[in-house]
Specification:
Layout: E1 6-17, H1 18-21, H2 33-41, E2 49-53, H3 55-63, E3 66-71, E4 74-81, E5 98-105, H4 110-113, E6 125-128, E7 143-144, H5 159-167, H6 171-174, E8 177-184, E9 206-212, E10 216-222, E11 235-238, E12 241-247, E13 251-252, E14 262-263, E15 266-267, E16 277-279, E17 284-290
Parallel strand pairs: 1-9, 6-8, 10-17
Antiparallel strand pairs: 1-4, 2-5, 3-4, 5-8, 7-9, 10-12, 10-13, 11-12, 14-15, 16-17
């Protein structure tokens, strides 16, 4: 008599950052499948953030015979299942069972290329398929794959909610904490449920998506000498200064690709992300390039 231990994927969370996935002015979501695959092949979300379960959730994962696997595009949780039925969790998963994963910042310039308000740095974001009791009814939910949403200020927890969440964490878990991802077996609506009405695992595991949008800035070119600028150029003088030229519009910051901007028929370089210059008075953010 023989037996085998079987696991079935329970749920998956993709962590996408468009700074790495967009290519110049071409958005990742508009690419064909071949180009998407190329961008994903060079992508690893762990270059910018680290995702780890809380200590409490780590113990729950072990207790329910669940296995966490990290991928370049996110993470997935697998459940040990019955030998007779690969949709039947080996240990029953209650409807209110949930797991919390911490989003820790790894890149010190994360906010430079991420479209989040700089003044909110340090506040706690919450991405969950079920609203927390501390938050209002219109608090946004973590969406399933293809939901076409970006993480924004709407996902910031209230002061009360942040205090309650941090109270359950140890000192190390609070360090460089950007937010939390919390997955319930049953979400606030059926489309966000991980398990079905019978408590079993659907044939297609629930796939959630966390998307960070890349920041767009005005590009400022600083020259040592006066420049001739015409209406056909992609830049203009800033406040009439011929040594300081700025783009007429904001442009996205991306890791790959190139946005062609010209001055007198000559292409101008694209900026890096090490330094940005906020102009709080005019509500603008500049990227500077020394020529």
């Amino acid at each position: 008599m023989s037996f085998s231990i079987q696991y079935t994927e329970l749920f998956r969370v993709n962590i996408f950052h468009r700074y790495f996935l967009d290519k110049g002015s071409v958005e990742f979501g508009t690419m064909n499948e071949t180009d998407k695959a190329k961008q994903l092949n060079n992508y690893n979300f762990q270059s910018t953030v680290k995702i780890v379960p809380t200590e409490e959730s780590r113990q729950k994962l072990n207790g329910y015979n669940l296995v966490l696997r990290t991928l370049n595009s996110g993470f997935t949780v697998w459940s040990k299942v019955s030998e007779a039925d690969d949709s039947e969790p080996f240990i029953s998963l209650e409807d209110d069972l949930n797991f919390t994963f911490l989003i820790h910042l790894k890149d010190s310039v994360f906010y430079n290329y991420t479209d989040l308000k700089l003044e909110n740095a340090g506040k706690l974001y919450c991405l969950s398929n079920k609203r927390l009791d501390s938050e209002p009814h219109n608090f946004p939910l973590l969406d399933k794959a293809g939901g076409n949403f970006n993480v924004d200020e709407g996902f910031i927890l209230s002061g009360e909610g942040e205090k309650a969440e941090k109270a359950s964490l140890n000192a190390g878990e609070k360090e460089r904490l950007l937010g939390i991802i919390r997955i319930y077996m049953k979400g606030d609506n059926s489309s966000l449920n991980v398990t079905n009405a019978q408590g079993k695992i659907p044939s297609s595991a629930k796939n959630f998506e966390v998307v960070f949008k890349n920041r767009s800035t005005i590009w400022r070119y600083l020259f040592d000498s006066n420049q001739q600028v015409t209406g056909g150029d992609d830049v203009k003088k800033e406040n009439g200064n011929s040594k300081i030229l700025i783009t007429k519009n904001e442009h996205p910051l991306t890791k790959s690709g190139f946005i062609s901007l010209e001055l007198g028929g000559v292409e101008l370089p694209n900026p890096g992300v090490a330094i940005i210059k906020p102009d709080t008075v005019n509500n603008k953010i500049f990227s500077e390039i020394y020529m």
